[in-house]
Amino acid sequence: MFHSLRCSIAMAVVLVILVLSVSGCSKDKKEKIGEIYALKSTPQAGNVEKMKAYLEDKDREVRASALWYLKDVDREEAFRAAVRMLDDRDGFVRSSAAKVLGELKNPAAIDHLLRNVDDEDFHVRLKIAEAAGDIGGPGAMTILERLTFDTRKDVRIFVAEAFGKIGNKDSLPFLYNLLKDKDFEVRVKAATALGNIGDESAIPQLEKSLDDDNKFVRAATQRSLYQLLKDEPSTQE
Q1: How far apart are CA 14 and CA 98, in angstroms?
Q2: pLDDT at residue number 235
Q3: Fewest CB within 10 A of the end CB: N or C in the chain?
């Protein structure tokens, strides 16, 4: 079994290096990322220090890979590193940091995410919304409320999903607003989130969307209404 696992890991490392070769990245990057993947199969006390050094690497993919390694082996160190990397010069690294903080589910991350809610890169903002949904709590709601009116539909989609995941009834007015969004994908997510939250007071707002001009919105609305109505207490004795 262990031999098979080692073979699988070794094959994964080889495939990563081959992909990096095809993509034209430097040998230096290939070796570093290959080492990061290889170290996952050989836990040693010095590995964390190596990853901390890679967090300062000039290449963004090396920095992000080192952060993901830490998330799996040292959650406290990963948390500290992710908080720092929210200020990284590269948007890819910042979005990776936000994603890691969400997966760590440490409530202490909320203040740091809120501080970066206006990041210039929309990929970072949508990952902040996703992280807020994963962590939850009042601070997460503040983040999502701020991002409800983001100019990018991609961010608003993640906001609606996060509201539905948290399930806080205070999000209803914001979801009603997203239910009227100009983009149908946002409206679909808003309708779905309202069903997930399960508050019957959303029924009148959802009923208005039964006449939406998009079939996917109508379908999502019908599913949510069914979900809410079937859970509604019967008035019959």
Answers
A1: 29
A2: 44
A3: C
